[in-house]
Amino acid sequence: MNYQWYPGHMTKARRxxxxxIKLIDLVIExxxxxxxLSSRNPDIDELGKNKSRLILLNKxxxxxxxxxxxxxxxxxxxxxFVTRLDARSKSGIKxxxxxxxxxxxxxxxxxxxxxxxxxxxxxxxxxxxxxxxSTFINTFAGKACAKTGNKPGVTKGKQWVRLNKDVELLxxxxxxxxxxxxxxxxxxxxVTGAIRDEILLSEDLALWLLEYVSENYPGMLENRYQIxxxxxxxxxxxxxxxxxxxxxxxALWLLExxARVRGCLLKGGEPDYKKASMLLVxxxxxxxxxxxxxxxxxxxxx
Length: 302
Ligand code: G4P
Prior knowledge:
Elements: H1 6-21, E1 26-32, H2 43-47, E2 52-58, H3 65-77, E3 81-84, H4 93-113, E4 121-127, H5 133-141, E5 147-148, E6 160-162, E7 167-170, E8 174-175, H6 183-192, H7 202-216, H8 220-225, H9 239-243, H10 246-261, H11 273-286
Parallel strand pairs: 1-2, 1-4, 2-3, 4-7, 4-8
Antiparallel strand pairs: 5-6, 6-7
Helix pairs in contact: 7-10, 7-11, 10-11
The structure holds guanosine-5',3'-tetraphosphate (G4P).
């Protein structure tokens, strides 16, 4: 595994964010609703302390609704303002606007008591790569919004986008680096496409995904790929396969079926596992497989 490209990039991003964060009142953090914890970097809590905090569960169109509800509750219980979002659609804008207003109310009140009027709340978007920051800024702030600051030839300061009369948004998002010292986090981020494919083999991703989906969303794979039930997984006499735990053998069997059903075959007619793996992961990322969330908040009840 090679993460070498990352550290220099991280240090610079963190330094820039530390500077930017000084200028703002509200941190709007985007997380991927399919992996709400794995797509966060908890360091933002330290960087954003003393600021109002809003979490946007983005890409809800791809996530499992019932789990999104659980995650929204989870973050609310931790003291964040939370709302759900499909950053590509304008339909969520109202909910986000009112949540921003709510998150800022305390500050606006404080200003008002001190006699400060009409001072807009300043906000910035943060999140790991690919979580939808630019999409959100484009959809939400759009081109119609007047940009303020950074007048040509006068300042080379920050660009602020006026969202409404009360809120200004920094037009460059803060990039958080994903934190994946835990292998499971790495897997979830790779499957969703947040980190680069080369880090993990596509077959490993696919087998893990197959195991997870079979267990958590029974019938979904069979439906999507028109796969019948396995008559007997023990039919496979391969001694290596025989030693595998049942779930792993089932995942391998499913991958083989997907390869056959979708015509991912090598010259001799053997299944092309790599091709089938890529097809499966792409089906997951695009939502064609179904609406899937890869983690559930701990309830503390187990
Ligand atoms: P970033 O600035 O945080 O790095 O993310 P960016 O906005 O570039 O979004 C990354 C990808 O995620 C884009 O896909 C974008 O369309 C998609 N995306 C953002 N928000 C949502 C959402 O709410 N729902 C869905 N379904 N997709 C969303 P892309 O440009 O097509 O690129 P790629 O995913 O094919 O690489």
